[in-house]
Amino acid sequence: MNPIQHILNQFPLIVLDGAMATELERHGHDLNDSLWSAKILYEHPEAIKQVHRDYFEAGADCAITASYQATIEGYVRRGLSEHEALELIQSSVRIAVQARDEFWAEAATAANQQHRPKPLVAASVGPYGAFLADGSEYRGDYKLTEEQLAEFHRPRMKALIEAGADILACETIPCLVEAKAIARLLKEFPGTYAWISFSARDGQHISNGESAAACAEWLNEHEQVAAVGINCTLPKHIPSLIHEIRSRTDKPVVVYPNLGEEYDPETKTWHGTACTETLGQSARQWYDAGARLIGGCCRTRPQDIKEIAVWSRDV
C-alpha cells in the first residue's frame, strides 16, 4: 500500500523531520566535505541516530535518512570499495529504522500512539548534483540524458529499498529530466513508492527554470510517485508553488523549505537572514493552501518541527 496515503487516510497531516546536516554541525561535526552528512555515516553513525531520535521526540511522523549525498561514486572516490559503499548507504536506513522502532516502543508505554501514526523511514535520494557537490542541485545544469541519470540512481535506489525503507524521498531535484528518470526507474521496483520534491528558484519555476506546474502534471500519471512538492527552497515561494502544483495534480503536496538563507556551494555555508516568521507559523498557511506533508530542510531544528507537530495534532 502507498504508505503516504495510508497515513493520510487516518491523519490530516504528515509531519516530516528537519535538517540532518546542519543539525549534525550544531553537535560539533565538520561537514565541509564533498560527502557532506554522508561522511558521518562511517565516522559517527551514533550521531545520526541521535538526530533521528530528537526529531521523533519533537513529533516527526517521518525520518529522512542521511543518504542524500551518499553515493557509490562518492565513497569510491574516498577509497572505499563498491561493496563498502553500498553497505554504508544501506546503514542509513538501518540507523533510522532502529531509532524509529526504539522510540515507538517507548511511545507505546507512554500511551500517546493514538495521536500520531507510527513514523515512516524515508530513504533520501539526492540529485546527481549533490554528488557533484558544486551546488548544481540548485541549478540543474548538468548535461546528462534521462538514461544516464537512471543509471546513476539505480544502484543506490536498489540498495535503499532492499535495506527496508518505507518510502523513497527523492529530493532537491532541479530539473524534470531527472524526475522523469526516477519515476520511470521506480517501475523496476514494484510495490515501491517515492515522493519527488524539487528545488525551486521562485514561486512558479523549479531550479532550472521549468514550470513547477508542468512537472507536477507529468508526475501525476505515475502511480508509484506518492507525493509531489518542493524542498530546500525559500519559504516565501512556498504558497505560490503549492498552488502551482495543486493545479496540475491530485497527489498529496509535500513541502519542506529551508529557513530563507542563501547557500554558498564553495564554502558549504549559509549566509543572509532567516525568515522572521517561525516554521510553525508558516506551516499553518501551507496546510491551508493544500500541503499535506510538511517539515523543514536546511537550518531547521527539532524545535521547528515541534511547532508544526503541536498544532497539527488538533487539525
UniProtKB/TrEMBL annotation:
Biological processes annotated in GO: methylation
Keyword Translocase attributed? no
The record lists Zn(2+) as bound by: 232, 297-298
Q: Which Gene3D superfamilies match?
A: Homocysteine-binding-like domain (3.20.20.330)
Cofactor(s) in the UniProt record: Zn(2+)
Keyword Iron part of the UniProt annotation: no
Question: Which EC number applies?
Answer: 2.1.1.10
**Principal EC category:** transferase
Q: Which InterPro entries match?
A: BHMT-like (IPR017226), HCY_dom (IPR003726), HCY_dom_sf (IPR036589), Hcy_S-methyltransferase (IPR051486)
Q: Which residues form the Hcy-binding domain?
A: 2-312
The alphabetical list of record keywords is: Metal-binding, Methyltransferase, Transferase, Zinc
User: What GO molecular function terms would the record report?
Assistant: methyltransferase activity
In which domain of life is the source organism classified?
Bacteria
Name-wise, this protein is: Homocysteine S-methyltransferase
